[in-house]
User: Fold these one by one.
Assistant:
Number 1:
Amino acid sequence: MNNDKMVVSAITRLVGNFNRRRQVERQMNEEMRTVKALDRLSDLSGKEEITITEVCRVAVKSLRTSFQYPEFSCARMVIGNREFRTANYIETPWRNEAPVIVNDTVIGNIETGYIKERPGGETVESIAGELSFLKEISEHLAGILRNALAEKEVSEQLEEYR
């Protein structure tokens, strides 16, 4: 009888350790996807004379490929009166949005979603994680757009001066 309790206790600890490991692995994967997306956007910010259109196209593509299930994800970005979207974009109930704010002004928004319910379903943690990711991307993108807009303004002023 005492052996049975020890076996059950050992199995319980193993299952708990396994579940904690899966949770840590999932969190690490999410962080890696975020880092990769931010890295792709950072590569853009180093380019000279990058257009806002190029930035937005790469950002939308990066968003889609950065999600846990990229084959089920879609993305759309509206900056001013221009819209950029993935080829598979549809309005979906499984989505998140974040504003793009430059110089204290909302200049657009980013929207990501899943075109069908995810295999694991929606959990509070997964929704919060993806919303946090989206806000991080939005802030980083706003910085890149701020610089691109400033460069454009300087170029226009130089052209006008000439």
Number 2:
Amino acid sequence: MFITPHFELSQSHEFVIVRIRIPQLRGEDGEFYIDGCEFKFFLRPYFLRLTFKQRLVEDGREHAKHDVPTGLMTVQLPKEVPGEHFVDLNMLSELLRKPGARGGETRPLIEVMSSAVASDDEGSEGGMSDIDSDELAHDAEAEQSLPELRCETGVTYGFNDEHSRLFAGLEDEQLVMLPQPELTDPSTRRALRLQAEATAFDADHYMADFMMDDEIQVAISYIPWWNQPESTAVSETDLSPPPCAPSASQPAATLPEASQQAASAAASASCRAWCGIGTEEQDYLLQLPKKEFLMDAAQRRRALCGLIDLLFAYCYEVRTALGDHSVEAGWNLRSISSLLSYLDCFEAVAEVAVASVHRSLCYPLFRHWDLAMTVLADVTRLLQLGRPAVLKALVETRHLVQRGLDYGYLLNRCWLDDYCVWLQQQPPRRLARLATTLSAVRLERGDVGWPLAAYEELAATAEDEL
């Protein structure tokens, strides 16, 4: 069975640097080759194939060195065009996807499930010298499809409506607030959600939070990670030059290669630390299925709106917990998100913004209009930062969703796993447009269907009389 090793990527003016962590590394082991946009590395039982969007070149400058004590193999891959910025080096699922699975946005996409198959037991355990590379490529890139499990009633839900029967037999576990998820069609889900929210809204709770809002003001003033200066390190919309680009005062040609690599490595390390992509997170990203999604414009719009729903729940939890998640974190996420609680979907950005604010005024501990507006601005900020920041938020959301819930992984299978794969396939401009659309939404208190202004006036009057 081939194993995908842990790896890290950075770049300099002339090279893409791949650092591959392999225990018990021996000097004579390991072979790699470069073919256009593709890089392959083999050391039994490890196999790594990365497909970049820009081209590499094999011109004699390629170099590999290893550190036996740490088991770290460092490979320098020459860029075909020196100074060209290689994009998406932190989109692991996309880098690992087969070259043939990539395609333009105009052609139909099909779902592809990828799984490595067992290697031949015969042959040397050294490098590729005694292994036919075409045969290896075939074995390592073999695919297998799993049959879809569809509900007999025809009810589907989850990302792109691709799931069914995930919650069958688990109705008593209260994984979702929707009473009968396997029997409820989309329009009924929406009606049941709105009915439950109308019942859950508590005017007294809202007025109490309006009058005694010291803790809420602390949450509003809190500076989460996406608003810290380090956030620009991974912003896809940042106008500053990428780490490998030469400065105006010192062209790249005059910079020592060692200095370029050191600066690139430092920037890469800072980015990884800021993104929180450690061993556990990389394990998860490497295990994600290599799949594409058959989506038309309407389905893509629903997916983008659902992304706002999930990010709102995440941003609310981070801000109100001041970055230190409590045991209630999973419940907060599941209760605030319409996707996670009622398997509901949305057709418009304004619609999902109203629904997110609606639920934030019904279920969590702090129910405050200004807090909800601050969280909406947080979502816009995350979208402006682009896929790295949003991917970090989704990976953290996935971890928190399972807290205190025996079958929480089913909610992740239903939504978060697919979102993490799909997000990496989206062009950065798509999130930028979504951020612009969300920032243009101007909600008023009357939009949520409750007389919030009247409640606030009543609370203020009562406070003056005390």
